[in-house]
Amino acid sequence: EATNDSGLFAYLRQLDVEDIILNLSQDDKQFNAIFTSEAKTENRAKTVASGLNSVILIGKMQVKDESSKLFLENSSVSSQGKNFSIKISLPSDKFQEIIKSEINKLPKNE
Fold it and tell me: What's the 3-state SS for the chain?
């Protein structure tokens, strides 16, 4: 939800990003999410990465929700060739706290 609240996917749609590969991993120390996509050209990949870095920077200044802010503060974007990647890396204990907090916000069935 934090990624969605940040406007990341809406921004990617505006940039005509069609396919995204998501790679998730977690061990006892670290949670990692890597979103990777291929742009039409190397220059386009650099442009998308630069734009996403700007969105993250602005998000860090504007987001009030602590979970969303934590995701943004631990995000980075890079490009290599035609590919660009968004990496989110958090300590596992912080990630688990966020998940528990979000679950507790869900309406309870009685």
Answer: CHHHHCCHHHHHHHCCCCCCEEEEEECCCEEEEEEEEECCCHHHHHHHHHHHHHHHHHHHHHCCCHHHHHHHHCEEEEEECCEEEEEEEEEHHHHHHHHHHHHHHCCCCC
Rounded alpha-carbon distances, angstroms, from residue 59 to 9, 56, 75, 82: 13, 5, 11, 25
Dump pLDDT digits (tens) for 13-54: 777 777 889 999 999 999 999 999 999 999 999 999 998 899
* Full-model pTM: 0.78
Nearest to 3 by CA among 69, 48, 96: 69
Rounded Cα distance between 108 and 110, Å, is 6
